[in-house]
Design goal:
Structural class: mainly alpha
Strand content: under 5%
Distance between the termini: 35 Å
Protein name: Cytosolic protein
Organism: Thermotoga petrophila
Largest sheet: none
Pfam family, one: DUF6485
Radius of gyration: 12 Å
Oligomer: single chain
Bound molecules: iron/sulfur cluster
Order of helices and strands: HHHH
Amino acid sequence: MKACPNKERNLSYCNCSYPGCPRKGICCECMHYHRQHGELPACYFPNDAEKTWDRSIEHFKRVV
Ligand code: SF4
């Protein structure tokens, strides 16, 4: 697979605190992964809410 040319730039504004995720900085894969699970990516959440790692839409509606 070709490396994402935007990865370094994406990482500069990624707020995800989940360690070791292979999708970090590859926003299209991140979005696809969470969408498949009925969730939203970390960047939809304020930093304190993101740190719970609860990516559910219910959590998003509670905090945003
Ligand atoms: S939001 Fe999810 S898929 Fe995206 S980098 Fe964080 S843990 Fe990985």
